[in-house]
Amino acid sequence: MRVRDLVERYGLEVEAGETGLDREVRFGYCGDLLSEVIAHAGQASVWITVQGHQNIVAVAVLREFAAVVIASGNRPDKETCAKAEAEGIPLLTWKGNAYELAGQLYGEGLGCP
Fold it and tell me: Which domain holds residue 29?
């Protein structure tokens, strides 16, 4: 599955990083504690969080994530979008809560690393 497929299937909004929409998604991870995400999320994951600050992009680059989804109607600030754009990290938003989206992605076969 590609990031583009997730965008289309779940109605996610692309905030930044359109150049990365063809990245392969192999896993999913849901969490907001950055150190936990760094320690446990796998490469090529789609990471679901409620955070919208610049550090989420740094974590996504460090762990080589396919994309970051900001859930619960939260939106990234301009600086975060600019950083995601520069790094080619798809930054997506979802109006529903993280649990709901994580459950749907798990149902698609995206398990934990």
Answer: 3-107
- State the pLDDT confidence band at 90, using cuts at 50, 70 and 90: very high
Backbone angles phi and psi of 62, in degrees to 5: -60, -45
- Pairing mode of beta strands 91-93, 13-16: antiparallel
For residue 65, tell me if it sits in a domain: yes
**What helix, strand, coil percent values describe the chain, rounded to 5?**
40, 20, 40
Q: What is the mean pLDDT of the chain?
A: 96
Q: Which residues pair with 67 in a beta bridge?
A: 46
Condensed to tens digits (0 to 9), the pLDDT of residues 78-88 reads 999 999 999 99
113 lies in some domain? no
On the CB side of 22, CA atoms within 13 Å amount to 1
Is the C-alpha dihedral spanning 61, 66, 72, 78 positive or negative? positive
What single DSSP character describes residue 81?
A: H
Give this prediction's pTM.
0.96
